[in-house]
């Protein structure tokens, strides 16, 4: 395993599976790349992203290369993202404290749900964080700097945010975006508000010239999956993520 800093070589590896590498491709942009540590083994690649407190760890490669990369990482823990064929490779190296089965959905044919939304800025950060704190695990991958993207949209009722969506990453340079931080206040669910704010975010991303758009959703969250399907997202594959801790020393 070797450390890697050449963007062109990193990009080549990530482009071997763009849907899986959606987030990592955006991390090639200036402003994010500085927070990344990249490690290579053959054509396989591991990323440790340090700009979020959960410290995402991403690996692209077959099971053997995944095990070699994970064995060599010096991280005591992080938010580990693995495809189904990679899961066994982590055994005995990292242990998930929580394991979430997820879907990566990609936009295929956009069918927006119309509705009035407003654009959020950094000034709205406190209200957005209160919205995320109102329910079950909202905003786990949210960081205030994401509001600077200009792609966050929300709905208010009586002056309070009741639904919001934004991006976790977006890169016109790489042609990719990941919609995320989608959340509706528990008292306002079942009214289609998530579809409205997500549609507004997707429309803004497309207007910026980005067409390869994806999102993550829990495999068990049937209501959310159906909502995203209604506006044109389709499941591309399933994967696993969650906070994990190292149980053996790095080799």
Write the layout of secondary structure elements.
Blueprint lengths: L1 E3 L2 H8 L7 H5 L9 E6 L2 E6 L6 E5 L2 H10 L4 E7 L10 E3 L3 E8 L10 E2 L5 H8 L20 E5 L2 E12 L4 E9 L8 H15 L4 E7 L3 H9 L2 E14 L5
Parallel strand pairs: 4-5, 11-12
Antiparallel strand pairs: 1-2, 2-3, 3-4, 5-13, 6-13, 7-12, 7-13, 8-9, 9-10, 10-11
CATH top-level class of the largest domain: Alpha Beta
Overall helicity: 10-25%
Give the SSE order as H and E letters. Answer: EHHEEEHEEEEHEEEHEHE
Q: In CATH terms, what is the architecture of the largest domain?
A: 3-Layer(aba) Sandwich
Going by CATH, the homologous superfamily of the largest domain would be Gcn5-related N-acetyltransferase (GNAT)
**General shape:** globular
Q: State Rg.
A: 18 Å
Task: Say what the CATH topology of the largest domain is.
Answer: Aminopeptidase
Instruction: Tell me what portion of residues adopts beta-strand conformation.
Output: 25-35%
> How far apart lie the N and C ends?
10 Å
Seen as an oligomer or otherwise, the chain set is single chain
What does the average pLDDT come to? 94
Structural class: alpha+beta
**Number of helical runs?**
6
Query: How would a textbook summarize the main sheet?
Result: 13 strands, mixed
In words, what does this structure look like?
The chain folds into two domains: 2-102 and 240-246; 110-231, Gcn5-related N-acetyltransferase (GNAT) (Aminopeptidase). Strands 1, 2, 3, 4, 5, 6, 7, 8, 9, 10, 11, 12 and 13 form a 13-stranded mixed beta sheet that branches. With 251 residues, it is an alpha+beta fold. Helices cover 22% and strands 35% of the residues.
